[in-house]
Amino acid sequence: MGLLSSFADGFGGFLFVLFSFLFVLTVVVFVHELGHFLVARWCGVKVKAFSIGFGREIFGFVDRYGTRWRIAWIPLGGYVKFMDDDNAASMAPTDRLKQMSPEERAGAFHGKPLWQRAAVVAAGPVANFLLAIAIFALMFSLLGVRSTAPRVDEVVANSPAAAAGFMPGDVILEVGGSKVENFTEVLRAVSASPGRELAIKVDRGGDVHTLRVTPERQEVKDTFGGTIVRGIIGIRRVTTPETMELRRAGPLEAVWLGVRETNFIITSTLSYIGDVIVGRQNADQLGGPIRIAEVSGQVAKVGPEALLNLIAVISVSIGLINLFPIPLLDGGHLLFYAIEGLRRKPLSEKTQEIGFRIGLALVLMLMVFATWNDRLIVWRWLTGNS
């Protein structure tokens, strides 16, 4: 009975993680592809298929415009297929365009002006960013904004902050040239800058001082077995019900705060990638579908607020990754269009094909690397050990 009970609990937990993962990824992928779809329709492009997932179709129907909406077995992405797409890379079928009738050519993606093609491609990542902004704005409006003033209550002895001259009572105005409005923003800026000198402006009794401090590198283990490197300077804020402010943001402020939160995720991600390249951070934080599944399951147990926040974060990440100038991704297409705009003619099919093959190789390498980073999660699933 004990073995059966453990199996049932484990299987039930697996189903919960699987459902949470499918929900998060489906929402993000659907919005991404919907961005491509809506702008394509607006530009007069005929869309043959809108698919969530790859492989054999589970369910589908054809709408009145002739588009096949489908859900497929492999839920690791999706695609929008235009009438003149010859392959998944959406390479321009020059010969087919010449053979089309004027009516068919009018609905062909590759027959559209350059700016329309670029708009269709960029619409996917933009839709992901807009989704994140909308989710954050909704949360700030309904759940409110929690904040505490960016004041220093304690300075840890022998810390970088003590060496830089921080004093209790200092009110932090700027970190690295960016204004801060609460203590959380201070901690975020410091945490994202291990080993990098920061100029921090403080208000000390009405006088403004600029203090220069280099956050110490602190390594912290995450729940997936990886190592997070963050910066600390040794300042503390004593949080009490009296010092914590909770207020609901108005519509315009909520949208603005959503934009700021989305921008923070983008800049933090780019900063992390830059730190990995120069060796300041470990690359084991890069994860694949397995890590997304694990996080989705954990967050779903916390509640709807945390799950919505995760959808927003993953939406920003997928939008940003798709903008990387790698052939096969949206950013690679935009790079080719930029070159086409400068040359006033597209790259040759041979050059594009070589670019897409290189892009495919890079994407596959990244997927393999991310999956390798997730091996500890799989081990914990199989053994129940951390």
Notes on the protein architecture:
- The chain contains 12 helices and 12 strands.
- It has helices spanning 2-42, 94-99, 102-106, 114-142, 160-164, 183-191, 251-278, 289-302, 304-322, 330-343, 349-373, 375-383; strands at 47-62, 68-82, 145-147, 154-155, 171-175, 178-179, 198-204, 207-213, 216-221, 227-232, 235-236, 245-247.
- The strands form 5 sheets. A 4-stranded antiparallel sheet has the order 6-5-7-8. A two-stranded antiparallel sheet has the order 1-2.
- A hairpin with a 2-residue loop joins strand 7 and strand 8 (207-213).
Shape: elongated
Portion in beta strands: 15-25%
Radius of gyration, in angstroms, nearest whole number: 25 Å
What is the number of domains? 2
Biggest sheet, strands in spatial order?
6-5-7-8
| Element-by-element helix/strand order | HEEHHHEEHEEHEEEEEEHHHHHH
List low-pLDDT spans.
Answer: 1-9
* Total number of strands: 12
- Structural class of the helices, strands and pairings? alpha+beta
Number of helices: 12
Largest sheet: 4 strands, antiparallel
Helix content: 40-55%
* Terminal residue distance: 25 Å
Mean pLDDT figure:
82
